[in-house]
Amino acid sequence: MKITRWDKPYKPDIEELKNILYQEGTYPFVWIDEPGTYYGNHSHAFNEIRWVVSGRMRYGVGEEEFVLGPGDRLDLPAGTVHWAKVEGNEPVVYLCASK
């Protein structure tokens, strides 16, 4: 698992993030989760990328919990059991991709 925090002085631009993912050989798509959305423990058969554009999402992997905000990126290896829920009262917009 790898978390990359946004450290640029400007808000993330969805097209910029998409272009980075395209350059990495992935085909990203936009996903929106409304407040209260919760995904229980699950895993994927592929390496998973989640890149938050706006809003905040809390994730749990094993005993570790963390919140991703605008510009933060999560790379999860295939088979990693995790859960996720929207943090706060605004929708979360993020890019999804897999390798």
TrEMBL record:
One Pfam short name: Cupin_2
Domain of life: Bacteria
Cupin type-2 domain boundaries: 30-97
Entry's transmembrane regions: none
The protein, known as: Cupin domain-containing protein
Organism: Candidatus Thermokryptus mobilis
